[in-house]
Amino acid sequence: MSYIHVQHLSKRFQTRKKSERRSLRREKTTIQALEDVSFDIEQGELIGYIGPNGAGKSTTVKILSGILTPDEGDALVGGRIPWKNRKEYVKNIGVVFGQRMQLWWDVPILDSYSLLKDIYRIPEAAYQKRLSELAEALNLGDLLRTPLRQMSLGQRMRAELCGSLLHQPEMLFLDEPTIGLDAVSKLALRDFLKWENREHRTTILLTTHDMEDIAALCPRVMVLGPGRKLYDGSLQDLLRHYDKARTVEIRYDRDESVPDLPESVQTRKEGDGFRIIYEPEKLPTAELLSLLQQAGPIREMTVQPQNIDHLIADMYREMGL
Q1: Whose CA, among 14, 41, 218, 233, lies 20 to 30 Å from 200?
Q2: Which spans in the chain are helix H?
Q3: CATH number of 244-305
Q4: Do the Cβ atoms of 133 and 140 come closer than 8 Å?
């Protein structure tokens, strides 16, 4: 059986909102957060779990980490039901929520790690070895005696990851781990996750809106929304289906040069050049380049695919999300 086996998972929430009529009563509303979601994940996989806000990604993570109980359906992680026998189950998982911290705010992170060692009953020798390994991989050596409140957001996220992995879990759930991080911190975090997945075969489920994270880390993605699984497969196959447009940036030797292009092509003047967006299916690249050359001597030109975020946005729109 797969390491994670999810079958027909459903979860509803009851909310109350103020009645439009003049009344002190609040009307009950049912939100279907998950509806009949099924999937399997093998041990050692690194999976991207994507979808727009409200799609049900965080609800799935909370169910699989044992925080929530589903209304219908079954889930097994490493042969265990997450919301039952939680003490035994949580020994084998790590969870990082990008907007919540598990480490203590006012004490050095080393003191937080020492407490986590006791909570997870990690033997001293194993703890010291794992802490040294993680501190080196996450570049935390100079920060171990620094309180969490004195760290930058990127440093806090690295510290949180270390705390979640001290007990060397089989499974790591990451819910928006790079939110708010700068480019350098994101790159460092991606390198570490690749290393952890490769060295320890840690199964990782990553939810994020940062599609560059998904492209850099996840060979396989699942698309959710709203509450239903819409796609499960290769990221490249998904992008290939929606990668319909190309962008050309071009500058001519003469400022008055203006390319004469079909109406299907978007042309915008930018500085001393032009930005051109076209669809190869409607206008082959070779034909476009011929038309651009007819406008005059070209000084500089680049052709590039759409930004990955635009591709995913197009996909959401086509799926009605």
Answers
A1: 233
A2: 57-64, 86-89, 109-119, 124-137, 153-165, 183-200, 211-217, 235-242, 285-294, 308-318
A3: 3.30.70.250
A4: no
Which amino acid is residue 116, in one-letter code?
Answer: L
Q: Which two tokens stand for residue 230?
A: 């819409």
With residue 249 as reference, give the H or E element that holds it: strand 246-252
pLDDT in tens, 50-59: 888 888 888 9
Secondary structure of residue 263 in the 3-state scheme: coil
Q: Strand, coil or helix: what is 223?
A: strand
Domain boundaries, the chain: 4-240, 244-305
Q: Return the higher-pLDDT residue of 206 and 295.
A: 206
DSSP class of residue 147 equals B
Backbone angles phi, psi at 161, to 5 degrees: -60, -45
User: What pLDDT, on a 0 to 100 scale, did the predictor assign at position 196?
Assistant: 92
Confidence of residue 311 (pLDDT cuts 50, 70, 90): low
* pLDDT, greater one: 72 or 312: 72
pLDDT at position 60 is 93
Rounded to 5 degrees, φ, ψ at 210 are -85, 100
